[in-house]
Design goal:
This protein is an alpha/beta fold. α2 packs across α8, α5 runs parallel beside α6 and α9 runs antiparallel to α11. The protein has a 4-stranded parallel beta sheet with strand order 3-2-1-4, sandwiched between helices. 46% of the residues lie in helices and 12% in strands. This is Adenine nucleotide alpha hydrolase. GO terms for molecular function: hydrolase activity. InterPro entries: Ni-pincer_cofactor_biosynth, Rossmann-like_a/b/a_fold.
C-alpha cells in the first residue's frame, strides 16, 4: 500500500509539472526505462502536443531502437527517428571525459532543428550524484527535466513504469550508450562499437538477467559482469566468450587480451571530473 501511495504521489507531482508546461513538447527517448517512462507519461498527459525523438547511431544498441519503435506503435506516439550527427564531430570521436556533452549538444541541436518545442529529458535525481556532462548541454539548450522538477529518483521511475503498465521495461538494467564502454582518450570507432555489441549480446543470450559490459582499454578488453553472472560463468563459458571476442575484434586487433572482472559503474573513465 505504501509503495502504491508513494507512486501515486510521484504521479501527482509529475502531473503538476506537466500542467505548468504550455505549448508543444519534445521528449528525447533513448530507449531506457527513464526516457520511455517519461514519454509514456507525457503521451498520456498531453498527447496532442507531444512528439518523441529517438536518435540512432553506431553507439545505440539495436534493441533500444526496436523498443522505442514498438512502444510508439503500441501507444500511438508521434515518433521521429533522427541521426543527430555526433559521429561527424571530431570532439566526440576523440572520446574526452566530457564526451557526453558533445553527444547531447548534437541531440538537442537536432531536435531544435526539427521543431520549436520545449525539449524534455529523462534525467532523475540519481543522475545528480554522478558526473553528467550531458546536463551542461541540456542547460545550454534550456532543456527541462520533469523528474528533477518533481523530485523523482531512479527507484521511483521504476515504480512509475510498473504503474503505467510498462511491464518488463520497469526492470530494465541501466544501459548507457556503447561509446561508454571505451576508455577515455581512446578514439570512438563504429567498428569497435559493433564488436563490443556482438560480445555483450552473446553473453546476454546466456545470462539475460545480468549486467554485462565489454570494456575496451588501451591494451586489452575487460568483460565486467555483475556478481551473480560472474560467479555462474565457468571455464567453458569464458572460453566461449573469448572465441566470440576473437571473431568480433578480428581486423580491429591482431590479438585480444581478454579478462573478466566485477562490474563497476563508469569504470571506462580514466579519471573523474575535477
Amino acid at each position: 500500500m505504501q509503495t502504491h501511495q508513494a507512486t501515486g504521489n510521484a504521479q501527482d507531482r509529475l502531473a503538476a509539472v506537466f500542467s505548468n508546461m504550455s505549448g508543444p513538447l519534445a521528449v528525447a527517448v533513448s530507449g531506457g526505462v527513464d526516457s520511455v517512462t517519461l514519454a509514456t507519461f507525457a503521451h498520456r498527459s498531453a498527447a496532442d502536443r507531444v512528439e518523441m525523438f529517438h536518435a540512432v547511431s553506431p553507439a545505440v544498441p539495436d534493441e533500444a531502437t526496436d523498443r522505442v519503435q514498438q512502444l510508439a506503435r503500441d501507444q500511438g506516439w508521434r515518433l521521429r527517428v533522427v541521426d543527430a550527427g555526433e559521429f561527424k564531430d571530431e570532439n566526440y570521436l576523440a572520446n574526452p571525459v566530457d564526451r557526453c556533452f558533445y553527444c547531447k549538444t548534437h541531440l538537442y541541436d537536432c531536435i531544435a532543428r526539427h521543431c520549436s518545442a520545449q525539449i524534455l529529458s529523462g534525467a532523475n535525481l540519481d543522475d545528480l550524484r554522478e558526473y553528467r556532462p550531458g546536463l551542461e548541454a541540456a542547460k545550454e539548450h534550456a532543456v527541462r527535466h520533469p523528474y528533477l522538477e518533481a523530485g523523482i529518483d531512479k527507484k521511483t521511475v521504476r515504480l512509475l513504469a510498473h504503474e503505467l503498465g510498462l511491464g518488463a521495461i520497469s526492470e530494465l538494467p541501466a544501459a548507457p550508450c556503447l561509446s561508454s564502454r571505451v576508455e577515455t582518450g581512446i578514439a570512438i570507432r563504429p567498428e569497435v562499437l559493433k564488436a563490443i555489441y556482438a560480445v555483450e549480446r552473446s553473453i546476454a543470450r546466456e545470462f539475460p538477467a545480468g549486467v554485462v559490459r565489454c570494456r575496451v582499454r588501451a591494451n586489452r578488453v575487460v568483460i565486467e559482469l555483475d556478481p551473480g553472472t560472474l560467479a555462474g560463468m565457468d571455464v567453458e563459458h569464458k572460453d566461449e566468450v573469448r572465441a566470440v571476442a576473437d571473431r568480433a575484434f578480428a581486423g580491429i586487433a591482431s590479438t585480444v587480451d581478454l579478462s573478466f572482472a566485477p562490474y563497476r559503474n563508469g569504470s571506462a573513465f580514466l579519471h573523474s571530473h575535477a
